[in-house]
């Protein structure tokens, strides 16, 4: 369970979402979009939009439904008429950079509970956005392209592919510029800093950090209070399969009856090369910041 201070989906939200999942409704009656926002410690429905065209044609409704300074979750329904495809929804977490720190913390720490209340199996994709531009269909489709799993490669093939990508990467991230990038100052958002403080106070078991590429800042993505089993070699936990992340986790040692902290640099091979290079370049500075924050 995420660290979420009793926040849950309201009865009205649960009912509205259940009705929207009814695939027997006609296309004109089906809800395309449900906007969810925190109101009095609950997620409430603040806006709904009906389907008018295909899910691609209606995608503009997402940008139209949000405001630059107001965080929200958006449940967006894809097109599906098959019973086995009832989980054809996207859950979008929109948290603008200007969002108040407490609001960022609440939205980041409540995702797991929201998914549990609405049914995690209903959502094919969980998508994060910091700006309205990132809510465009073009950017979303590019994100899906990066998600597509490539055919398994041997270690030698992976290294060759990665080297080729490095040569064609953004000029600022080319091998000749890597030393300069590595020395860049990394800025943390207030929400990320606040989450690290809670972690230091033993209030959280895990803090997941992501680089906001549009702002070049390390931001908070999610906080978790339960323990996870990292002994499983195939364990991926709550981390995305196609994007890097920085993770700070507290692990309990039953033998010594004590806890120790571990920093995880999560970087799947399917991540876009530019993101891999940015996260790799920032990693040392992120570790320094975390260490200084503990002192």
Automatic annotation (TrEMBL):
<dbReference type="GO" id="GO:0030042">
    <property type="term" value="P:actin filament depolymerization"/>
</dbReference>
<protein>
    <submittedName>
        <fullName>Actin depolymerizing protein</fullName>
    </submittedName>
</protein>
<comment type="similarity">
    <text>Belongs to the actin-binding proteins ADF family. Twinfilin subfamily.</text>
</comment>
<dbReference type="Pfam" id="PF00241">
    <property type="entry name" value="Cofilin_ADF"/>
</dbReference>
<dbReference type="GO" id="GO:0051016">
    <property type="term" value="P:barbed-end actin filament capping"/>
</dbReference>
<dbReference type="GO" id="GO:0005737">
    <property type="term" value="C:cytoplasm"/>
</dbReference>
<keyword id="KW-0963">Cytoplasm</keyword>
<dbReference type="InterPro" id="IPR002108">
    <property type="entry name" value="ADF-H"/>
</dbReference>
<keyword id="KW-0677">Repeat</keyword>
<dbReference type="InterPro" id="IPR028458">
    <property type="entry name" value="Twinfilin"/>
</dbReference>
<dbReference type="InterPro" id="IPR029006">
    <property type="entry name" value="ADF-H/Gelsolin-like_dom_sf"/>
</dbReference>
<keyword id="KW-0009">Actin-binding</keyword>
<feature type="domain" description="ADF-H">
    <location>
        <begin position="5"/>
        <end position="145"/>
    </location>
</feature>
<feature type="domain" description="ADF-H">
    <location>
        <begin position="183"/>
        <end position="295"/>
    </location>
</feature>
<dbReference type="GO" id="GO:0003785">
    <property type="term" value="F:actin monomer binding"/>
</dbReference>
<dbReference type="GO" id="GO:0005884">
    <property type="term" value="C:actin filament"/>
</dbReference>
<comment type="subunit">
    <text>Interacts with G-actin; ADP-actin form.</text>
</comment>
<keyword id="KW-0206">Cytoskeleton</keyword>
<dbReference type="GO" id="GO:0051015">
    <property type="term" value="F:actin filament binding"/>
</dbReference>
């Amino acid at each position: 369970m995420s660290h979420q201070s009793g926040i849950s989906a309201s009865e009205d939200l649960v009912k509205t979402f259940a009705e929207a999942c009814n695939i027997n409704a006609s296309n004109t009656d089906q809800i395309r979009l449900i906007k969810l926002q925190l109101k009095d410690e609950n997620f409430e429905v603040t806006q709904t939009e009906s389907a008018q065209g295909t899910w691609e044609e209606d995608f503009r409704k997402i940008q139209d439904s949000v405001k630059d300074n107001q965080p929200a979750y958006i449940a967006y329904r894809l097109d599906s008429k098959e019973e086995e495809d009832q989980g054809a929804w996207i859950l979008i977490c929109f948290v603008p950079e200007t969002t108040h720190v407490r609001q960022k913390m609440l939205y980041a720490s409540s995702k797991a509970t929201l998914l549990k209340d609405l049914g995690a199996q209903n959502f094919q994709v969980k998508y994060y956005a910091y700006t309205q531009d990132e809510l465009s269909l073009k950017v979303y489709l590019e994100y899906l392209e990066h998600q597509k799993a490539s055919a398994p490669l041997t270690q030698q093939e992976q290294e060759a592919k990665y080297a080729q990508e490095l040569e064609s990467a953004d000029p600022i991230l080319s091998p000749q510029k890597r030393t300069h990038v590595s020395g860049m100052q990394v800025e943390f958002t207030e929400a990320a800093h606040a989450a690290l403080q809670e972690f230091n106070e033993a209030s959280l078991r895990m803090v997941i950090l992501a680089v906001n590429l549009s702002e070049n800042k390390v931001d908070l993505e999610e906080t978790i209070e339960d323990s996870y089993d990292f002994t499983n070699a195939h364990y991926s936990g709550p981390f995305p399969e196609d994007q890097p992340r920085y993770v700070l986790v507290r692990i309990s040692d039953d033998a010594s009856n004590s806890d120790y902290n571990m920093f995880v640099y999560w970087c799947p091979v399917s991540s876009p090369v530019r993101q891999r290079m940015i996260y790799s370049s920032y990693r040392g500075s992120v570790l320094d910041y975390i260490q200084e924050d503990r002192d």
